[in-house]
Amino acid sequence: MRNSCKGGLTDLKESQILKKRQLLRNNEYYTMQDVFDRLYEQSCKNFKFRNLMQYIFDENNILLAFRNIRKNKGSTTVGTDNVDISQYMEMGTDKFVTYFKHEFTNYVPKSVKRVVIPKANGKTRPLGIPCMKDRIIQQCIKQVLEPICEAKFHQHSYGFRPNRSTNHAIARCMKLMNKGQLHYVVDIDIKGFFDNVNHAKLKKQLWNMGIQDKKLISIIGKILKSEIEGEGTPTKGVPQGGIISPLLSNVVLNELDWWVSSQWETYDTKHKYSCLHKYRAMKSTNLKEIWLVRYADDFKIFCRDYKTAQRIYKATKQWLKERLDLDISEEKSKITNVRKKRTEFLGFVLKVEKKRNKYVCQSNMCDKAKKHTINKIKSQIKVIQRNCKRMEISKLNSIILGSHNYYRCATNVNLDFVEINFLVLKTLKNRLKNHITDKPKISETYKRLYGNYNGKIRTVQDITLFPIYGCKTKPPMCFSQDINNYTVSGRLILHKKLGGYNHLIEHLLKSNFGNQSMELTDNKISLIAGQRGKCYVTNNNLEIGNMECHHKKLKSQGGTDEYKNLVWLCYEAHKLVHCTEQETIEKYLKQLNLDKKGLKRIDSLRRQVGNLAI
């Protein structure tokens, strides 16, 4: 989600789509997509990978890791060595790559910073923040392991996987309850899952997946045993906060997914049926119909009757203990008949109610989610009261819009937000009464997102506040199994192939910039994509040999290599920015034949370098 210059916000869904596209494009820019596709295809064929390190410390993979880490919100968070991404941004590209190749030869991770964050229930969650060097190394490993693991993961595991979200998990639950009429739900809560993962078992699971590079397994073992600041070396567990930890947690529970699935969904029958006829035939046997939906360590097993639910509850508890050495929380684990009681999952509560002649799932925000949303909105209102800046007002809009987009798949979400609005409105009126203007200025973003609502409009600092009650249900869609980052057809569903300026990106990637900083090298590539291969001034397509990257504020005047300080120009436009002789100015103006917008941009760039406007 991003703030516009007028305080507006882009739609969260659009932002998520752009982020997915960006990750795919990053892979393509650094020519790693073909490698990832090949690893995925080989993993589908049960290939044994014994030399993965060649891909992990490949120059392009290291540069891709830097690019992905740099775009991460946590890139400014420091570890125990007090270093953030800025130190590596100042390195030359060659030096950066050489440094990390050397690190892989005898890798020893630094200690992990312990951070404790509050949970919604009042308890705390311990996070382990690795140092920046270790995060980049973990990203290099994750990029290569992910396509191999994706080929092995179960289709109804939704947490920490490309393109999948909580909405897909909720949609799957609702489908099983509506279409499948499966109304007995087994909830299993694993006690301290991330803190109790068995290291030896995890490494064996990676080996069984085909990841049989001994040097890589050794490095992963070192990452798992990284010393935790103030606590010593762990003997078990996967540190929450590490780049590679979510992928490893999915590897651990993947075995559970396939075990549950093998009882019904992927049961191997002697006769080969079509999918529909297979389940119809199986219903005449003694097999028990069960279906799994998992998001990270939260999972539900849907059953048709209470007896089956009891059996799978006991069997899953026993299997987790014997196979993964994990215990369950007896207090939080239970069997629910959703015709009588509600079941909670990922911030939602689900229950079926009779509608005409069948049961239909009705969903709401859970009580903890409502309370958490109310507290977040109230806290931000208090911040605005003390510090009424546009940035803080936009942040309030971000909180409201983000909550709407996350919970809108609930069938009764409009009633939930009407209640939240009622409980927050008094705080909003009292604390911001001196800041709310009588004559509201309605932004274009507000019209696009909330233009159909007729409630009172409130404006602070010329930014229209989004209506808290303004949330309509949008039925969640089940995840399409055809979407895949590692097949050509799967990527085409996500985004159209970039056209027109791929050759410019390839040219930049192949160019040797010597001691040019990593930040400038990376930002040049981002900027080509940001400007869609066009000159900032003329809006004409840039060409190899006729494209120059300009610093808006010159380096000699204290300018930086930041993205916002750069702009791609054609040769003539760049000359026009810097020239001072009237004859030269007229020469390039004649060549460029600029419109009003182009002239305005040229004048802006000229003033920033200290020249007079034309």
What this model shows, in words?
- This protein is α+β, with helices and mostly antiparallel strands and 614 residues long.
- Helices cover 47% and strands 11% of the residues.
- The chain has 23 helices and 13 strands.
- It has helices at residues 12-29, 33-44, 53-56, 59-70, 86-89, 93-105, 132-150, 166-178, 199-208, 214-224, 245-262, 275-282, 306-324, 367-386, 390-407, 413-431, 444-450, 488-494, 502-510, 518-530, 571-578, 582-592, 596-608; strands spanning 113-118, 124-129, 184-189, 290-295, 298-303, 334-337, 343-345, 348-355, 358-365, 459-460, 463-464, 548-551, 566-569.
- A hairpin with a 5-residue loop joins β1 (113-118) and β2.
- α9 (199-208) packs antiparallel against α10, α9 (199-208) crosses α11 and α19 (502-510) runs antiparallel to α20.
- The model is unreliable at 1-14 (pLDDT under 50).
Percent of residues in helices comes to 40-55%
Q: Supply the helix-strand structural class.
A: alpha+beta
Note the quaternary state here.
single chain
Shape: globular
Mean pLDDT: 87
| SS strand fraction | 5-15%
* Radius of gyration, in angstroms, nearest whole number: 27 Å
Number of helices: 23
Query: The biggest beta sheet, please?
Result: 4 strands, antiparallel
Low-confidence stretches: 1-14
- The order of strands across the largest sheet is 4-5-3-6
Number of strands: 13
The first-to-last residue Cα distance is 37 Å
What distinguishing features does this structure have?
single chain; 614 residues; alpha+beta; four-stranded antiparallel beta sheet; three-stranded antiparallel beta sheet; 23 helices; 47% helix; disordered N terminus
